[in-house]
């Protein structure tokens, strides 16, 4: 019985997509619907315990005792299936967008789709109003048009790690060189302005209705969980500059909110591009202390998880990323690209709950290179290498010490992608 239910669930999404496309193609309700997808597969060599050291094991002195052997295997790099369409109304254009992710490499026959996007947009000459699950506008401000956002293996970015570090760590952390940082956000209400001579802005709030939603991050407040505002300027030459702000309380009720500012500048042509972007911010809550690897957890063991908001705690972080690409042939089908990143996070107690005057500092370094070749506009092969290092230091009342053993990891990937 369970197997049959699981099979019906896996068949439901393709059936819905197929029905939607057929109805759209015959002009039901004057709507236009397109189906699209990506299959993204790679052969990856990395640590068995994962790219990020959250699962690594440390001894009582903070030395790594198990980070897993290096292993190779076929992995999915973000395959997806979606539909997007629009309907012309009297005063607006209605845009609808649904997208699901799936693992094209798994051998698990019970594997299902997971929702990536799902929103409705009303658009006219005065701008666009969007509701649902969307791409994080702050991330879009920082990373759109950068090599990091276009890398086939989703490279880490120090600016993303720094932002996630300040939002409780579960959305990224510098001492784990993890930059997941809420790529997409649900329960969103977004306004995007029209463009005036290359300028436009967007404002968004995330509201999860605390009493009704089980979301582990956005189940903290009765009204607005996150707020972000971003200003963009694009010149016809290919130059652009973007700035943004994101703030919110994703910690325990009553904790201090995190505040992060971002800036992105760049220049892009059909043959080459360069981009510099970064983020800096702070929070004064306790929930980020001890988040990350076991070194940090052990150091802040008497603080971690406390539902308290005493003064004397401050967490600051910043990250900077430089990326570039160049198409090396006249057909513009072969591209080389790379990135260099640096991040820093400090967690400090000054006459706080335990009056220990302690501080943790994490320094992150990342570099990555890649090459890709397009067989067509929809099919390409690629190879990428990414190296990451974190140096940690801890201070008590009288002493400061560095761990001589830095946290290091790297991964090598060779892959193929087809868009349809």
UniProtKB/TrEMBL annotation:
Bilayer topology term: Multi-pass membrane protein
Listed CDD domains: gram_neg_porins
Domain of life: Bacteria
The UniProt record lists the keyword Ion transport: yes
Gene3D superfamilies xrefs: Porin (2.40.160.10)
Domain Porin, first and last residues per copy: 19-389
Keyword terms: Cell outer membrane, Ion transport, Membrane, Porin, Signal, Transmembrane, Transmembrane beta strand, Transport
Protein name, entry field: Porin
């Amino acid at each position: 019985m369970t197997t049959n239910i699981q099979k019906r669930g896996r068949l439901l999404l393709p059936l819905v997509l197929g029905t939607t496309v057929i109805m759209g193609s015959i002009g039901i309700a004057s709507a236009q619907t397109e189906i699209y997808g990506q299959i993204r597969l790679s052969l990856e060599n990395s640590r068995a315990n994962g790219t990020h050291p959250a699962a690594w094991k440390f001894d009582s002195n903070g030395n790594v005792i198990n980070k897993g052997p290096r292993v190779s295997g076929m992995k999915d790099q973000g395959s997806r299936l979606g539909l997007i369409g629009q309907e012309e109304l009297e005063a607006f254009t209605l845009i609808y967008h649904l997208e699901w992710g799936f693992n094209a490499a798994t051998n698990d026959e019970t594997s299902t789709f997971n929702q990536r996007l799902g929103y409705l947009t009303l658009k006219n000459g005065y701008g666009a109003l969007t509701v649902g699950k969307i791409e994080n506008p702050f991330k879009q401000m920082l990373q759109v048009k950068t090599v990091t956002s276009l890398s086939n293996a989703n490279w880490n970015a120090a600016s993303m790690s720094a932002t996630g570090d300040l939002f409780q760590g579960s959305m990224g952390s510098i001492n784990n060189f993890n930059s997941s940082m809420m790529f997409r956000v649900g329960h969103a209400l977004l306004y995007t302005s029209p463009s005036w001579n290359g300028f436009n802005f967007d404002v968004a709030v995330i509201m999860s209705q605390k009493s009704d939603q089980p979301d582990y991050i956005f189940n903290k407040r009765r009204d607005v969980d996150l707020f972000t505002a971003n200003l963009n300027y694009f010149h016809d030459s290919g130059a652009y500059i973007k700035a943004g702000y994101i703030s919110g309380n994703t910690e325990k009720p009553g904790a201090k909110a995190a505040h992060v500012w971002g800036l992105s500048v760049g220049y892009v042509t059909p043959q080459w591009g360069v981009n510099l972007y970064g983020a800096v911010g702070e929070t004064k809550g306790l929930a980020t202390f001890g988040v990350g690897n076991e070194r940090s957890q052990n150091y802040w063991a008497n603080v971690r998880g406390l539902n308290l908001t005493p003064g004397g705690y401050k967490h600051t972080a910043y990250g900077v990323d430089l990326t570039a690409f160049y198409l090396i042939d006249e057909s513009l089908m072969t591209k080389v690209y790379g990135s260099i990143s640096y991040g820093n996070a400090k967690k400090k107690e000054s006459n706080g709950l335990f009056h220990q005057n302690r501080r943790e500092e994490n320094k992150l370094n990342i570099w990555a290179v890649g090459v890709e070749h397009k067989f067509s506009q929809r099919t390409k092969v690629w190879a990428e290498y990414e190296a990451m290092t974190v140096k940690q230091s801890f201070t008590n009342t009288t002493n400061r010490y560095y761990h001589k053993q830095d946290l290091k990891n790297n991964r090598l990937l060779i892959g193929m992608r087809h868009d349809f």
